[in-house]
Amino acid sequence: MSKHQWKFFTAGGFDQVKLDSGADLLNLDQLDQKLWVALACPTTGLEFCPKTAALIDTDKDGRIRAPELIAALKWAGAMLKNPDDLIQDPAKPAKRDEPLPLAAINDATPEGRQLAASAKQILTNIGKKDATAISVEDASDANKIFINTTLNGDGVIIPDSATDEATKAVINDILACLGGVPDRSGKTGIDQAKVDAFFADCVAFEGWSKQAEADKTKVLPVGEATAAAATAVKAIKAKVDDYFGRCRLAAFDSRAVTALNRKEEEYLAIAAKDLTITAGEIAGFPLAPVAAGKALPLKGTVNPAHAAALAALQADAVKPLLGDKAELTEADWTTLLAKLAPYETWSAGKAGAAVEKLGLKRVREILAGKAKENLVALIAKDLALAPEATAIANVEKLTLFVKNLHLLCLNFVNFRDFYDGHEPAIFQAGTLYLDQRSCTLTLPVADAGKHASMAALAGTYLAYCDCVRKGTGEKLSIVAAFTNGDCDNLMVGRNGLFYDRKGRDWDATITKIVENPISIRQAFWSPYKKLVRMIEEMAAKRAAAADAAADAKLSAAAEKTVNADQAKPGPKKVDVGTVAAISVAIAGIGALITSLLGYATGLFKLPFWQLCLAVVGLLLVISGPSMIIAWLKLRKRNIGPILDANGWAVNAKARINVPYGASLTGIARLPEGAVPVADRYGEKPSGWIGFLKFVIIVCFIFSLLNHFYVWDTVLYKATGKHYLPGFIRQEAVEKDRAAREQAEKEAAEAAKAATAPEALPAP
């Protein structure tokens, strides 16, 4: 059980842990992760230092998970004397850029001492020998230390790393054959893997070469020239085989000779063109004129497209292996192939081809020396400096962690940055201005369709926008949450302006909308707006249909006028179906009017104040369901699904209630002290609407008081008379008033009788 005393604050409808001290950060491994707001987040798509995110993401899977964040905090805390140096005041963003004092580094541990020494070395190498603090920018210049180094702890050596020319030459040979890997100095070098691969190729190449030496007369019939002979044969082999095949076919049937030598029409097709001696148009023709049993001439009457190849065959293969011949019989060709067959077999099994360019002599020279041992020792010497080099890299790591770890915690362990308003959260991409509103809850998205399927569960009105900077051609997709105002003018295709966190402006166009309630006020008017839109659409359709019908009638009338003399109109007939339909329509309209008049008569029998309440009740009946649904959705509105769709693992219901939602979407308002000027062409507001409201309110109050006979009672008691006209006084009021008057009269008479002297009996 954790002994650390945690403090919490409430925001977004749930408790969040406070992270106000270094001890809070270093004890996060003891905090129940059910109390963390998020358990994972992506390393990209955030307004957060990508280099810091990459350092925290130790497994390089593109996500920062809770264990990785805890490990980063533990390491940074161990490297500092006071872990409170990790705390950054969100109200003072400038403090985050202050350099790290060298005295703050914990030199009580070996790793800390090495890190402090490396920090001083960095400052010395960048010309700040007397500096007492190191910034992120200083630590990022640490690579300058390695520019002129030959051994720098990365396991890569360059030619200059060698102290003798022989070893340097071997390093250059490896680079020439296998290429290299980048060294911290910025140059290209080799590592242990390159050394092992190179010497394995050398051994394989030398072993393969020994196979030829074991049977040199057979494998290399003309010595070093055998390779050239095999190359010459390979270059023309297909055409030579084709030639002798055609000759055998001609010997089989002399009728095929003409076809085998190509038809005259094929020559006519190319004769009109400008030909060269190597014309591609005749490359597919035989090497020479075909005849039964004819030898292949190696020069003279040969196909110009292959004359050079035949000359190379004669010089490099035929002459060294068969003697100086001007033509080649099929038997000679078979003999030539047989003599080169052992070489072809040996060549096909070539090993260590990567080092062949060095030549067998150089390969054997390298293998005979101690080049490999020297290179391995040199790499080991370089790796011995790894702790020092790693410490130099850790200086940059520590400065980045001091600057950014607390910021990440305030957007990961809790969402203080999102809820307190000091600065935007790291997942907020910027501000979208559209429809006289500014939306600050915007996030970058890669796939709007995939994102919307999850984000729709947030209960928030979302607009997906494609953004582009036409000057640079950059493109960006975002999603913006509209949490204030209404959605009447939000639709696909509307354009706005998006400002990213760097202040750059982008043209934004809505491409997709996920509809959800924005406010209860909007939900109240929503049914009536839908009704108005429906009526407008129906009216537009009816108008379009009427216009089309009118056009059709005009067309028919014109046609009738043109053909008036061709046909006489027959007597008009009454369509019984039409008459019936009209009767049914008239009856339906009459029934509807009667029903409405009946309802209206019943309503108008009510007192005026009750009529007003009935109208209000009717409005609530219509708007009530929409308002209830909106209220339920607004209560559940939260940012979790929006972030989850972007790769987060949000662990809490981070709600966006109505007051907070209003702060995320600003509404256009005139600045304080602004004096608006009247619109010269604006329509003057009608005074009748205000007058009508006033009359309704007065009548409502009068009717309400009259219903409870307040006015009549007051006036009657004051004057003894009824001043209100009878048609205003209600029948129930009149009866009640008469009963009260009768009761008062009887009470007065009884009182008078009780106080009169007792009557004397008659004498």
Ordered list of secondary-structure elements with their pairings:
Layout lengths: L7 E4 L2 E4 L4 H5 L11 E5 L7 H7 L6 E3 H13 L21 E2 L8 H16 L7 E2 L1 H5 L24 H14 L2 E2 L5 E2 L2 H23 L1 H4 L6 H27 L4 H4 L3 H8 L24 E2 L9 H16 L4 E2 L1 H19 L11 H9 L2 H13 L2 H24 L6 H5 L9 E5 L2 E3 L2 E3 L3 H8 L5 E9 L4 E9 L12 E6 L4 E10 L5 H43 L13 H29 L3 H29 L3 H5 L4 E2 L7 H7 E3 L19 H21 L2 H10 L11 H25 L8
Antiparallel strand pairs: 1-2, 3-4, 3-18, 5-6, 7-8, 9-10, 11-12, 11-16, 12-19, 13-15, 14-15, 14-17, 16-17
Helix pairs in contact: 3-16, 4-16, 7-14, 7-15, 9-12, 9-13, 12-13, 19-21, 21-24
Question: Concise description?
Answer:
With 763 residues, the chain is α+β, with helices and mostly antiparallel strands. It is built from 26 helices and 19 strands.
Report on this model:
The protein has 763 residues and is of the alpha+beta class. Among the domains are: 174 residues, no CATH class; 77 residues, no CATH class; 131 residues, no CATH class. It contains 26 helices and 19 strands. The strands form 6 sheets. It has an 8-stranded antiparallel β-sheet with strand order 13-15-14-17-16-11-12-19. Helix 3 crosses helix 16, helix 9 crosses helix 12 and helix 12 packs across helix 13. The chain is flat and about 175 Å long. The termini are far apart. The mean pLDDT is 82.
